[in-house]
Design a protein that fits this description.
By secondary structure, the chain is mainly β. Helices cover 14% and strands 45% of the residues. It has a single domain (3-150), classed as Pnp Oxidase, Chain A. The protein has helices spanning 3-10, 57-64, 77-83, and strands at 15-16, 18-24, 28-34, 37-41, 46-52, 66-71, 96-98, 101-103, 109-121, 124-136, 143-145, 148-150. It is globular, with a radius of gyration of 16 Å.
Length: 160
């Protein structure tokens, strides 16, 4: 099968949009938009992110041994585009802190993690993160499906 066919097929899975951030001593905050994120375990509380071998943040996470996951709100499309490299003009991002790590204000969920495992699979590295803190806000998520940003539409309840 062709790469494009595989990519198109994977794009049919609707996902939330996250920005992964990390901070390396003296070198500032680094981040990237990603939808390759999932929860792994409740006890202990573990999550996993998948980072491509060409991503600049890969070496930064290895160096810092920590990362945050920011699940973006529906009104944060521009933030997603900034960290995906889709907006070329410079925009200053002011970060909040969670467990001492940088997080994006306004995200509906912020998760601080320490790297507890690292596995290279294909052209990606899977980082297992031990959750050290979490912050939740009310709001609708930013959704990505079939190569486009989407929003959720609430279904009408039908009484039978």
């Amino acid at each position: 099968m062709e790469d494009r066919q595989f990519r198109n097929a994977m794009g049919k899975f609707a996902t939330g949009v996250t920005v992964i951030t990390t901070e390396v001593d003296g070198n500032g905050v680094h981040g990237m938009t990603a939808n390759a994120f999932m929860s792994v375990s409740l006890n202990p509380k573990l999550v996993v992110i998948s980072i491509g071998e060409k991503a600049k943040i890969l070496s930064k996470i290895k160096e810092s041994n920590q990362f945050t996951i920011n699940i973006l709100a529906a009104d944060q499309k521009e933030i997603s585009m900034i960290f995906a490299g889709q907006l070329k003009e410079h925009r200053e991002i002011v970060f909040d802190r969670l467990d001492g790590q940088p997080v994006i204000p306004g995200s509906i969920v912020q998760i601080a993690c320490e790297v507890s495992g690292e596995h290279i699979e294909g052209d990606h590295t899977l980082f297992i993160g031990k959750v050290t803190d979490i912050h939740i806000e009310d709001g609708e998520p930013l959704v990505f499906y079939s190569g486009r940003y989407r929003s959720l539409k609430e279904e009408e309840q039908v009484m039978l």
